[in-house]
Model the fold of this input.
Amino acid sequence: MTLQQLKYAIEVAKWGSINIAAQKLFITQPSLSNAIKELENEINILIFERTNRGVSLTVDGAEFLGYARQVIEQSELLEKRYFNSQPSAQHFSVSTQHYAFAVNAFVDLIREYGLDEYEFQLRETRTYEVIDDVKNLRSEIGILYINEFNAKVLNKMFKENNLQFTTLLVARPHVFISVNNPLARQKTVRLEDLEDYPCLSFEQGEYNSFHFSEEILSTLSHRKNIRVSDRATLFNLLIGLNGYTISTGIISADLNGPDIVAVPLDVDEEITVGWISHKNIRLSPLANNYLQSLKRVVKNL
Done:
């Protein structure tokens, strides 16, 4: 087992593809594939499952990569201490449902630590991909919500993929609407008040299940539905079409501007937003710092 092999395995896990990892490492795909196979044979476990769509970490592989990352970090510290080697760029990745406060915390992390060199990734993505990213260590942290309706399905996925969920906040549902919407002047909004307005939600791609929806009450039917793939488009449509979406009520005027407000929704529901991480992996200092920034942002908002 060599440090080079460990670095190869980490890169493959990062990209979820041997072909892409080979390109990033500037080596041939057969050379990288053989190096991974030799490593697997030597340690007598299967690190990756190969499919037509790429590779994914096995349970044993996830545990092994956790140790591998620590070994690489320690080797870099030794090189820096005794060989005056320049430290490698700091790496951190987080995957999240479409929450502005996750972006706020990401910005605060970078500003606070003022790193000279880093490679960070913020993935605003679909529910299934948030879970898959953390499972396969493409992200250290995933941010999503659970409630009474989807908890059974999501908790089953967490258990099967060796993930743990930690609560960040518990919120009452709100509707996000334009300040010019007539409902913006009400203290609370009822579901029947919303019937004439377009309902906006995030599409979930091929994993389009009610349980993966980013909005509660996903099984309700609406006369006017619009599905979007990104937060900026959704907010533009909230203003341009007087639409609405259901979320936590936590909104950032710094990122989203002053034209959108949150009004409490009169339903007997709760939204528990939290973060998932891999049980076998110790979070990096940057990941822990991000979580502290996330808690501060949520508290302030």
User: Anything to note?
Assistant: The longest helix spans residues 59-83. The chain is about 40% helix and 20% strand. The CA atoms of residues 202 and 230 lie 7 Å apart.
